[in-house]
Amino acid sequence: MEHGIQISETLRDVKYEIRGQLANHANELEKRGYEVISLNIGNPGLFGFRTPETMRLAMIENLSQAEPYCHQKGIFPAREAIVMQQQDRGIHGVSAEEVFVGNGVSELIDLSLRALLNAGDEVLVPSPDYPLWSAAVSLNGGTPRYYHCDPQREFQPDVAQIESLIGARTKALVIINPNNPSGAVYDRQTLEHLVSLATKHNIVLLADEIYDQMVYDDAQFVPMATLVDDAVCLTFSGLSKVYRACGYRVGWCVFSGDLDRAEAYVHGMELLAALRLCANVPGQWAVQTALGGFQSIKDLVRPGGRLYVQRQAVMDRVRNSPYLSMQDPMGAMYAFIKIDDRFAGRFDDRSFAQELLEDKHVLVAPGSSFNTPYTDHFRITTLPDVETINTVFDRIDALLEQRA
Q: So what's the pLDDT on residue 374?
């Protein structure tokens, strides 16, 4: 009997359980006729959120210009619109040459780490994190080192602990703000401390800001790049979340700060971007309209807006549950929910998620899949309508009541 083909050892430490075994099992249940409520992915289009019409029209009207390859960094109108947004936010010294457009932020995370890391280099990643960051570090020969954003600290970074992790091989610090999965939004002072660390230790700041305009109540989003002078900062954002255009696969990365020190890094990124020729062109024609037009996200996140109302519905159900608790999410489109301590030792987040799927046909993401040291959380998206949210929590409470 011949041996099967062995996969690369670089995949040994890579996991992405948001679309992993549980999601595959949910697909199997649906094929057997069950209706599964899938809350594992923040995918606005699946929950009735539309991309703004002006963006759709901009893409359609420019389809004739979208047939050839474009420049490896992206079309100029898109990059120039991104520069103007940066300038409007008070970020100076950036030109279109420092902007890269990619097939979503996901591709640019991979390219930025590939251009930066040598084997054995370390990257500081938050715990909980968005697991693509950890996976991309490992795939590019690096080692993720986790800094804790503890629930007891409202998921805020512990600056002193971060500094204790910095060593000779530390190359970069990842900041996800607003945070996925916790919904935390970092205050200016915390971000200033992180910039000071990066400047002091000569490490690159990688600021994942894909949810930059998705904040609630009195939370204020502070762009990391506005605080950076002497460090090198890469800011990641895109159309997927704020503009509800996940399928367009348009993200961008902007270099700022000490651009003289970043010169070789920018060239390395351009080489890698050229090797993949270019990003999806049609979707890039929506960028200028998106960034320059009416920002419909503001109506969605203010009181009375759909995202605000659905987030409130989740918070109300968690508060009223005898089995659940959480820190109120101040940004993004997720809730990171804790299972009561009375269940400790009887089943953890993975077994809970498995039972919830099999018994109640609700798909959630186990908290430990976001690289946490604890196993008593799970993440859901807050995108469903209020009726669906109530159905989900009725089923969660029923399952936990059976085991209380």
A: 94
